[in-house]
């Protein structure tokens, strides 16, 4: 039996890619944690990750060449699943099998967004975690982003308490397109930009509309209406660019996923008040870099945040020449002119507070703010939006037909 609280949570990462390194850096701002393992299929990636853990002073990390080896290690309490969407279920099935058979002492698991590609997969993720007796956390960083933490706290404490609850949340996330080929392949990723990025927008909006301390079930989804479009990457020049960059498997002349999505979600609170989420996402936005826009509106107040309206900006003339990078802002598109800089990306995007929260909950045996159940709820909304976009009709909840629904672009041979 695991005794809580544990003094230190010993974490193992599955995946050593883009998001794994973001999480690792953010762990610098988290107490009572050590990163004691990484499972990667590549010896080179494992070593790079192990070296970085040592450099950051985050513990003694062992590189594992199999997931089973990491799960069976004596120094492993919790797993962070940070690998591509199509690998989730197999990883979770292995964790479940090892824990159930008593070969692993892991007692908690956290999983990156989206929890799964379909409702059926998400439901299995949840049931595997609960059947194995694991504490579980859904890694939706925007819920923990510093402007959301601060903005939500002020709005609800000062404004909503005196003039009434907020009724409209707007959330947008846009950038110029993902960095690895699997994101662009509908079957592997689960869809296009709607599943990749609207998972953030619907959940952060739902969180902003939820009263502090109230369960997510205090809001009920009534109906969803979605639109998807191909704005940029199906244009022949850009489809060819994708193919040249990522190979023949990313074929946007013949098998594109949507690069724009819009969603309206109608909800109801416990008093029968109508609430609305408006979400917009795209892979067709070319600005300085990733742009997150959030708004929360109520009867006598409004909150807004734009991640590119940074306090810190730098200007570099055309004489400043150098290599391309993402050193100023995520998904950066330029190295000259007036550029916004996020001084603390891990904090503003939410990774630091997210990991602090998950580590503390797992260490103490408490239920996190975001669990696999919330991840499942997000996938239900996303599948409703996809179905609405496919049929041209609003989808009313509860919608049992979503149980086996697969978005058009994720169907094999589509
Ligand atoms: N919260 C956010 O804003 C955010 C941002 C980006 C990504 N994400 C999410 O994080 C996840 C990973 O995205 P990423 O951008 O880090 O992708 P990535 O750069 O492609 O990295 C994925 C990693 O997973 C590992 N991997 C690949 N196939 C695997 C398999 N079959 N079994 C085990 N590991 C495997 C790879 O490691 P090896 O090749 O070394 O084995 C690679 O390091 C995705 O679910 C994505 O949606 C979230």
TrEMBL record:
Domain Gfo/Idh/MocA-like oxidoreductase N-terminal: 9-133
Residue intervals of the Gfo/Idh/MocA-like oxidoreductase C-terminal domain: 182-395
Membrane spanning stretches: none
InterPro entries (alphabetical): Gfo/Idh/MocA-like_OxRdtase_C, Gfo/Idh/MocA-like_OxRdtase_N, Gfo/Idh/MocA_oxidoreduct, NAD(P)-bd_dom_sf
GO molecular function: nucleotide binding; oxidoreductase activity
Keywords from the named record: Oxidoreductase
Family recorded in the similarity comment: Belongs to the Gfo/Idh/MocA family.
PANTHER family according to UniProt: CONSERVED EXPRESSED OXIDOREDUCTASE (EUROFUNG), CONSERVED EXPRESSED OXIDOREDUCTASE (EUROFUNG)-RELATED
Protein name as catalogued: Dehydrogenase
Taxonomy of the source species: Bacteria, Pseudomonadati, Pseudomonadota, Alphaproteobacteria, Hyphomicrobiales
